[in-house]
Amino acid sequence: MQAQAGHTTRLVTMFENTLEFEEDITLNFKLPVNKTAKLWRDSKIKSLKYYEPKNFLESTFFKLRDFKNRSKITALIDKHKLYDFDVYHFDGGMDFFRDLRFAKELKRRNKKIVCCYFGSDLRSRGVFKELDEMSNLNLTVEFDHLQLHNNIHYLFFPFDVKKVEYIFPERKKVRIIHSPTNRLFKGTDKILKVIDDIKKTHEFEFILAENVRRDKLLDMKKTCNLSIDQVGGELGGSGYGKNSIENLAIGIPTITEFSEEYLKFLPENPFISCGIGNLKSTVIKYIENIDLLKGVSLNGRKWVEKYHSYESVNAKLEQLYLENNI
């Protein structure tokens, strides 16, 4: 987004991308994805203000990891001259190092720091107190984060709408897709039980797309005319993310769960708002009257263009830059 707006910008990622998204500069560290690592991450889900290691073992692990990765990170910083930029966005409010040595050096050089919180950063881990104090601006794309941080600004997630062709497939029966990145957060197990129940009385197609490569997932989405994103996944908050934005841009009406406050907060909300208790009746409504989906589809595409396009989000971001002397 910022490159298209005319800025010189680089994206540095720490971990290997398993779903083959486009990369820029990456350290290619391996993110543990085994069951033990997942259980450890899920166990940290709670409201935290500041991050603190849960125990001595966790503290020791990150100290050893910083020591092990130091030379590789330092070499990458030197190679790409990463101290030569003006503004630094810390996605997830996280440094290369747990001791925040990169951010501290930036602050010493009078650079501007922005912390951007996505997904479950604030819910499961909290903020790093020292980095929070160094930050010139805090951003979030998650509505419930506004309650977890007392100095944070909401920004619609930037999405390159122009890259996505609008398609609403004409089908004789509904084809539904659910593509979770984390079953616990998305309420997948609850959703599947409802789907199995509906199959007893109605004809429709259902696709569970889990851990699917991005290009393949896009091809699958283009054949669908309804999506269930997040219902019954209270541990992940409520609302929508990039998956739902992509759905709406393609033309797929999307069912997801919202709190009452979130619904009021969102202007011209195009989603099919639904909780686990009325998921069955909601899905049946559209299975029995597929024509209802066409109008919902077009409204969704127009909404993404208005609120999530690069032009719209960048204008808001640059306004926040000016207001915060960045």
Based on secondary structure, the structural category is alpha/beta
> What's the structural domain tally?
2
DSSP strand content: 5-15%
Count up the helices: 13
- The stretches of 5 or more residues where confidence is low (pLDDT under 50) are none
What pattern of helices and strands is seen along the backbone?
EEHHEHEHHEEEHHEHEHEHEHHH
Strand order of the largest sheet: 8-7-9-10-11
Rg from alpha-carbon coordinates = 21 Å
What would you call the shape?
globular
Largest sheet, in brief, is:
5 strands, parallel
Helix content: 25-40%
- Taking the alpha carbons of the first and last residues, their distance comes to 18 Å
Number of strands: 11
Query: Overall mean pLDDT score?
Result: 90
Structural features, described:
The protein is of the alpha/beta class and 326 residues long. It has two domains: 12-157 and 311-323, no CATH class; 162-307, Rossmann fold. 40% of the residues lie in helices and 13% in strands. It contains 13 helices and eleven strands. The radius of gyration is 21 Å and the shape is globular. The protein starts with 11 loop residues before the first strand and ends with a helix. The mean pLDDT is 90.
